[in-house]
Amino acid sequence: MASKPKITLTKDVYERLWKLLELVPEDTITNQLEEELERAKIVTPAKLPDDVVTMHSQVTFTVQSTGKTFTYTLVYPTELDNTENKLSILSPIGSAIIGLKQGQEIDWPISKTQRTTVKVDAVSRAD
Predict the structure, then answer these.
(1) For 9, which of 40, 84, 100, 125 could close a Cys bridge (C-beta 3.0–4.6 Å)?
(2) Helix H or strand E segment including 32
(3) What is the pTM of this model?
């Protein structure tokens, strides 16, 4: 398996995600997200590049195994609603793309028996 790409998070997102992990049952996804947090570079909001996926970013990504491209806004689980354009940070893909820059890709498990590579094609952030 290739080494994972560098990821960058703001301190407030980093801390909020740790608090979220304390509140939810432990499973494969939460363990993977915890590993991502442990290796993240932490910066101030002003130093977070515009092309880095953070919470509430609108992200276009391609799942390499299927060749399908999707666009979602990355949200906390409590922000999910009936709209189809939101992706929870606690979903396999949501936990994979947090902190990645546009153009980066990551090899990521999407189930106990399946892995895929996810590539971040575009990132836009709400101000």
Answers:
(1) 40
(2) helix 28-39
(3) 0.91
